[in-house]
Amino acid sequence: MRVFFAFFCLSVFSYFFLDKETAFLFSSPPYFVEGVSRLISFLTTPSLYLIAGAFAALYTRKKEPLLLTSIVFTVTGVLKVLCARARPELLVEKGIYGFYPGTFSSHFRSFPSAHTAMIIGVLTFCFLQKKTSYVWWILPLAVAMSRIFLQKHYVSDLFMGAAIGVLSAQVVYFLDKRKAGKEILARFKIKRLKKS
Questions:
Q1: Which of 132, 137, 159, 170 has the CB geometry, 3.0–4.6 Å to 126, for a possible disulfide?
Q2: Alpha carbon of 174 to those of 22, 123, 168, 179: distances in Å?
Q3: How far is CA 115 from the centre of its chain?
Q4: Domain limits for position 83
Q5: How far apart are the C-alpha atoms of 47 and 74, rounded to whole Å?
Q6: Minimal CA–CA distance to 46: which of 12, 14, 87, 75?
Q7: What are phi and psi of 89, to 5 degrees?
Q8: SS3 174
Q9: Model confidence at 129, in pLDDT bands (50, 70, 90)?
Q10: CATH number where 177 lies
Q11: How confident is the model over 34-93, as pLDDT tens digits?
């Protein structure tokens, strides 16, 4: 819970002191950096994690991967629609900044970062289960930087995405480790895929 709160506080701080400055600072990345950023963003698309979570659940009969990716996907999706924050590209090109609830354009889906939430959630869950090392934590940094270079997110969006990912992973881990949580997870029937 402390990590969630730390990311939440960093998000609020970034909103007031870093967002506009970093949007302009990284508005024109070198061509190579932009290309690498597009590749990283494509490979870490949240819907791919959702599909991978579904396959992992079907193959292993463990519900946690699908539950985790579903929670992150749903929470970030709902917040994006409710908050409707203008993306940094709108600030740089047209001077539009802030939240515009009721706007349904994809240019107003900056807050929070689903890419960051998903990768942080998955790595946090693996870390809690002692199935990953610290080396893997370079991936969320690469994803976060790619989203900034592509002008899709502000720094505060990334921190809030990280907070959502950490909290989602902690909830799923808690459900997995507690008796009451196992009963809740048992309600989700998943049949195992047969190997050919």
A1: 132
A2: 36, 15, 10, 10
A3: 4
A4: 2-186
A5: 11
A6: 75
A7: -60, -30
A8: helix
A9: confident
A10: 1.20.144
A11: 999 999 999 999 999 889 888 888 888 788 888 999 999 999 999 999 999 999 999 999
Look at residues 173, 146, 144 and name the one whose alpha carbon lies nearest to residue 156.
Answer: 144
Structure tokens at 98: 């802030």
Residue in the structure block whose two tokens are 């930087």: 145
**192 within some domain:** no
Give the range with max mean pLDDT: 28-32, 116-120, 126-130.
116-120
Report if residue 191 sits inside a domain. Answer: no
* Position 20 in a domain: yes
Query: What token pair was written down for 66?
Result: 């699908």
The residue among 22, 57, 2, 44 whose CA lies nearest residue 156 is 22
Number of domains in the chain: 1
DSSP assignment letter at 85: B
Does some domain include residue 153?
yes
